[in-house]
């Protein structure tokens, strides 16, 4: 990852496995005034009714993945792609280039000294190549499972399939420039976020909030 020059914002990627608490960390950075680009929101945009990607998905998977109002039935599609790895690969090949293009545009247009890309698949999708620094929100695997089951009301088997589709904790932490330990309280996480925000603000010459 290359350093940012003085003419462009420092692009910082924030990621973590499912149930790690990356959304909580992202909200904390946003509360400190950091512009946040959410890859999940962009992923939803590119499959909205009227978007070419939605038509391609309907042609490939059939009408079962489209709701009566014309919107994508995400639950049905999720079940299909996690049950069959080749289907997930097809979907990723369709969507990742579209998502990455929009992400790149919004990162460059932020106008801030540093901007954050929040993405659960930062490393797996290749979005890591769009940023200059990587923050990983880290928790142990059992915590991920317990939090996801409680939050999403899904089975342990489905959580296991999602975890299998993401890169390992070892690989994720290996790619990190900064680690945020979210195995404790939200106050503990907030203290780490504020400390890192001061560090990044100092790097780009920004007076921290």
From TrEMBL:
One of its GO terms (molecular function) is ATP binding. GO terms for biological process: coenzyme A biosynthetic process. Pathway: Cofactor biosynthesis; coenzyme A biosynthesis; CoA from (R)-pantothenate: step 5/5. PROSITE patterns: DPCK. It is an enzyme of class 2 (transferase). It catalyses: 3'-dephospho-CoA + ATP = ADP + CoA + H(+). InterPro entries: Depp_CoAkinase, P-loop_NTPase. GO terms for cellular component: cytoplasm. It holds the Pfam family CoaE. It is found in: Cytoplasm. Keywords: ATP-binding, Coenzyme A biosynthesis, Cytoplasm, Kinase, Nucleotide-binding, Transferase. ATP binds at residues 19-24. Its EC number is 2.7.1.24. Belongs to the CoaE family. NCBIfam families: dephospho-CoA kinase (TIGR00152). Catalyzes the phosphorylation of the 3'-hydroxyl group of dephosphocoenzyme A to form coenzyme A. This is Dephospho-CoA kinase. The gene is coaE.
